[in-house]
Amino acid sequence: MSAIPPRAAAGLSGAAAAPDSRKSYGLQALVNSFGAGRPLYVLDFGGPIQDNINFITDPVNGAGHRLYVDHLLHAYEYFFSAKEQEEAAFQPGRIEEFIASMLDFPDQSADVILIWDRLQFLPPPVAEAVVARLYQILAPDSFVLALFRTDSSGADRAPYTCRILDDHTLQLREQPPLRRIQTFNPRTIQKLFQSYREVKFFVSRESLQEVLIKR
Amino acid sequence: MWNKPKKEDLPPRPAPAPAAVPGSAGEAIPTSAYPSRRADEVATRGGALIGKSLILSGKISGREDLIVDGRIEGDVDLPENKLTVGAGGHVQGGIRAREVVVYGTVHGNMEAAEKVEIRRNARVLGDLRTARPVIEEEAYFKGNIETVRAEHPKPAAPRPAAPEPAVQPALPNAVPAQAEARPGEPRKG
Lengths: 215, 189
Description:
The structure holds two protein chains of two kinds. Chain A is an alpha/beta fold. Helix content of chain A is 32%, strand content 26%. Chain A has helices at residues 6-9, 13-17, 25-32, 50-57, 72-79, 82-87, 94-102, 124-137, 186-192, and strands at residues 21-23, 41-44, 66-69, 110-116, 138-149, 160-166, 169-174, 198-203, 208-214. The two termini of chain A are 16 Å apart. Chain B is mainly beta. Chain B has one helix at residues 35-45; strands at residues 48-50, 55-57, 60-61, 66-68, 71-73, 76-85, 90-92, 95-102, 105-107, 110-118, 123-125, 128-135, 140-147. In chain B, strands 1, 2, 3, 4, 5, 6, 7, 8, 9, 10, 11, 12 and 13 form a 13-stranded parallel sheet that branches. Chain B has a domain at 35-147. Chain B is 6% helix and 35% strand. The chains are: A alpha/beta, B mainly beta.
């Protein structure tokens, strides 16, 4: 992101001390990858989080970018019937309909996509369709920041609420309800993003894999 | 030290207000469940109320605060005032106001010079353009957010000094201009 907020640049001591907070090398690399310049268009599919809105959009204390917010999992659950979700079986054309309604953006219009851990809670064919559409939406040399829990052993988990505390600190809190989680490892993550130019892994605490993907 | 009034000087406390409406954090804006309080609020603030059984189609514009508990199908334009969409309220159209607070549903873009607050359980599909976007996490929001610098009113141009009268008129009951409206006191008249 082009401008680092002053409170972030100053190394906010309170951010590091916040409960559930952790240093995020992925976020740091994302922020550092953009020099100062034009305002960016950021898509955040983690749902509305006030700290993230301030960090990304505030023209004085934040980066002054334009932000689009939606919650990928809520959109998925709203669009597909309970039966479709339970069986993870979709009639032909249903996933395409979902993608068209959920990701209705001009091609190459986005500069940053924050997908957080949401892909891991989608059935594989839906996750693959989302990733393919994100590729079209992203401008060349733009980035996706994703999180994957590598310790997922098939047990249901709650997705994270991902809060940006500063340019290198995230606060992650599990937000019920529990949902079915797909298992990913570095190889399957590479495969999911195989059409992208670069996939960079950052190891974090508690078997959490931060991944920065370049279009 | 803080000129705290003595306990016996304090006016009697009013009866406790009814519990806040579930789903509204902070300042508890009453919903239609408390029509008398809502009517009081409207009367006190000089605003207007669109009741829960009303459906309006067309553009609304004006210079007073508005509380919507019913349904509006059309644009709302209150550039100097506050629009509150109550828990049961629904606006299907664009909104321009000084301040917008949403407890209910808005399908349309919102532009507010000061702030837009989307409270928990509210549902908003549309873009926001405001100096202070505030969205509670349990709200449903889908759209673009653009934070703009707050528009501060330009300071009034200094007036040319009026020539002092040679003799001050003797007006013992006149109120000095500065004392007419002290900060925190309602202006008389």
